[in-house]
């Protein structure tokens, strides 16, 4: 059967989801657990690669296997073989043609910013700190200009293979900035993303929040298609894959 797993993971210790030669990946870790439970090591298809250090609240993957374990018990069986920073939260059967990446209607990421000169020791690994006061209203005004279908080359890391092919048009359906005390969360929903796109987007909104650029400058940044005109790439530790929408 074709099975979809939903995971949550702390990406701090991993080189990203996809298997790589330069470190331990989330994919490899999950495959180790699958092999321990199923006796086989099925190839898996993830909804996203995710960069090194990026976290996930609801990451989806699928694989095909003969599974003797009832699906409602499969998360518990896998979690018994997984490290504490990776958890399977759901396992469901999906149609044979389901692909975790290509079946996604949209994905939602959030970026967490701690707007204070003082860190919080309990969750410092899960946000990027900005000392100077941020104007969240200016950040939202800039975020509003990102919504829609645009060429997002300016928000793509240099050297991206996708950028080299010229495939840099994406549609953002929501971009929200919310403050709760010192915590500012930038939430973005789009049909797809370029390499480092959300981290550069968040860095550009921070520039607007610091009044280093006016919100209206976003239009010129996108039109200019120049990575140097956008804000910095914020650290991976503040980024979370929040959810994947499959229309079900």
Structure in words:
This protein has helices at 26-38, 74-79, 136-144, 161-165, 197-209, 217-224, and strands spanning 2-9, 45-46, 55-64, 86-94, 106-114, 128-129, 148-151, 169-180, 183-190, 239-245. The chain is α+β, with helices and mostly antiparallel strands and 248 residues long. The protein folds into 2 domains: 2-94, Alpha-Beta Plaits; 106-245, Alpha-Beta Plaits, CATH 3.30.70.660. Strand 2 (45-46) and strand 3 (55-64) form a beta hairpin. Helix 3 packs across helix 5. The longest helix is centred in the N-terminal third of the chain and has 13 residues, at 26-38.
Task: List strands and helices in order, with pairings.
Blueprint lengths: L1 E8 L16 H13 L6 E2 L8 E10 L9 H6 L6 E9 L11 E9 L13 E2 L6 H9 L3 E4 L9 H5 L3 E12 L2 E8 L6 H13 L7 H8 L14 E7 L3
Parallel strand pairs: 3-10, 5-6
Antiparallel strand pairs: 1-3, 1-4, 2-3, 5-9, 5-10, 7-8, 8-9
